[in-house]
Every structure is written in C-alpha cells, then in structure tokens.
Amino acid sequence: MLDFLPEAMREPTVVAIPFFVTMVALEWLAAWKLDHTDIDRPSSRTDDTLSERGSYNPRDSRASLLMVLVSIATSAGWKALALLAYSAIFAYVAPWQLPTDSWYSWVIAVVGLDFLFYWEHRIAHRVRLVWATHQAHHSSEYFNFTTALRQKWNNSAGILMWLPLPLLGVPPALVFAVYSLNLIYQFWIHTEHIGKLWAPVEFVFNTPSHHRVHHGSDAEYLDRNYGGTFIIWDRMFGTFAPETHRPTYGLTKPVETYNIWRLQTHEYAAIARDVRRARGLRTRLGLVFGPPGWAPATATRVDTRSHRTGSVVTVPDDSSSV
Fold first, then answer.
1. What angle do CA 211, 136, 273 make, to 5 degrees?
2. 52, 63, 78, 273: which could join 258 in a potential S-S bond, CB 3.0 to 4.6 Å?
3. Inter-residue contact 262 to 268 (CB < 8 Å)
4. What is the tens place of the pLDDT at every residue in 284-319?
C-alpha cells in the first residue's frame, strides 16, 4: 500500500494520519460544543486566566499542524540517512540478525526502543543543545491532540540513541516501525478529556494523566515522566511524579508567537547569543551542553525564555582562565 513512498517513509505513522485527523476533529468539536474554545490570541502567563480544560486556540492548533507537516518531510530525510548507517551496522557489525517476522524480535524492539526513548527524552530536557531540538513540542500552552502533532524538525538525537538496536541485530525496518508505533501510542495521551485509568494501567503505561504532568511548567512537574509507552522507566529511575493538580502548560517563559520557524529555532538563536557574549571556554561549554537555564555564578543568562528548569544552575566562573 505504501510502495510509492521512499523506504524510510513506509511506516505506520503515514497510515495513521487519517486517524490523527479524525481524533483532532472530534476533540475540537467537543471543545466547541462545550463552549471551551479560547479566544484567538497568544496566551500569556501575565493573564489572570488559563485556557479552559481541553480547549483549542485556532492559531495555536494551526501552528501545530504546520509543524507536523514539516516534521514528516524532515524526519524522512533523517531516517534516510539513518537507514544507511543502520543497514551497515546490522549487516557487518551486529553479532547476530534477528528475524523480522518473529514475535520476540518485536518484543525486543518495542521494549528496547522505549527504554532508549526514555533516555533520549531525558537528555533532551537536561542538555540545552538537545533541548533546542525538543522545546517546540512543549511550547503550546494548550494540551490537546494537536499538541501531540507539534513535533520537532531535528531528529538527530533520536537517530543516535537508536544505534544500539541495529547493533544488537534488530532489523532497521523494525526499528523504524516500532518508533512509529511509539509515536502513535503517544498521540492519545495528549488530552485533558481522559482522567486517571485503572491503577495497574497507570502503574505500567504512560497515560494522559502522566503526560499532562510532563507538559506542565509548574515547579513540581518540571522534568518528570519522560516515558514514551511505558511509565515504568520513570518509576525505576526516579523521575516519576503523579498528577496532583491541573498543570500550567507550556514553557516556563512563553515564546508568545505562532510563527513555526521561530518556535522551532529561537532556542538555537538564544544559545548562539549567549555563547557569543560569554567569556571562557568552560562557560561557553556550559551554555551549550549544560541544563537549560544554566549560568555561571557571576552572570545571569541573557535569554531564558525557553528554559524549563525551576532554578538557574550555577558554577564558578572560569572566564579568566581561557
């Protein structure tokens, strides 16, 4: 059915597009029916009101939809490059080659990729340069199905994190397939219309309740619940937080624009400005590879609009040494 597409794009997410569109339309209709559609303007933390539960802002949602269209094209390019590397590793380096049609290959791929997704996601929140690729997904102050489609354009971090899978003999096509299934699973957890589920499900799997916490900019919710399909990784590695109140969605410092280019690139620009103004090699490296919001002890970050950490991390300034 997908033979007309390049091999790197023959994936479940393409088939799932009608499902995504249908679910967005249904949720948007429900929000309109319940008179929950917010006014058409950028929301700001200086306002006294927050968006209604599960509401849609037309311009915000349109930005998310435009982002996913660009993401489909850019991810195909990244996957085409990854396909070459993965195929070489799978064919010439892997000590064995798992069969694509065996159930255990799928179990290894699904669990292995989600484990690697957890760590890639965690790195994306703790290393500023990688955060720059991911922060656009968190930029919406609304939480609905279109937020799930607000995808990044730079997939390089994920491509690198998946390398252990072909190295362990997982076929490249299977790597791409299970990653697409992982993304499809995460679509339905971007909603406020589903409350907490049966306790065993909440314990093992990522759910709307867990993912609402992840998108919260509240201090107690920052950098929590990184899991993709399984929340068990967060429980194992100490990053789990339960939902105790409705989150305040978005970045700690809103960008306040619907321009998709600026939403995707403004943190790269902020990094460049900070590095250009900084003194000392250690300071410059900290501004690039330290956590978002990092600053040397003797300085304050010039641009902190998109950091998600609750407080600025400081280290002694070494500007005099370089």
1. 135
2. 63
3. no
4. 999 999 999 888 876 554 444 344 543 344 443 443
- Rounded to whole angstroms, the Cα distance separating 312 from 218 reads 15
Selection from 218, 225, 236 nearest residue 121 by Cα: 225
Q: Per the structure block, which two tokens stand in for 18?
A: 């009608």
Tally Cβ neighbours within 10 Å of residue 274: 22
Residue 40 pLDDT > 60, yes or no?
Answer: no
Tokens of 155: 């997939």
Which residues make beta-bridge pairs with 206? none
Torsion region of 128: left, alpha or beta (phi above 0 gives left; psi -120 to 50 gives alpha): alpha
SS3 state of residue 230: strand
pTM of the model: 0.81
For residue 224, which amino acid is it?
R
- 78 sits in which H/E element: helix 58-92
- Name every residue whose Cβ is closer than 8 Å to that of residue 107 and which is 6 or more positions away in sequence: none
Nearest CA-CA partner of 149 in 7, 253, 25, 319: 25
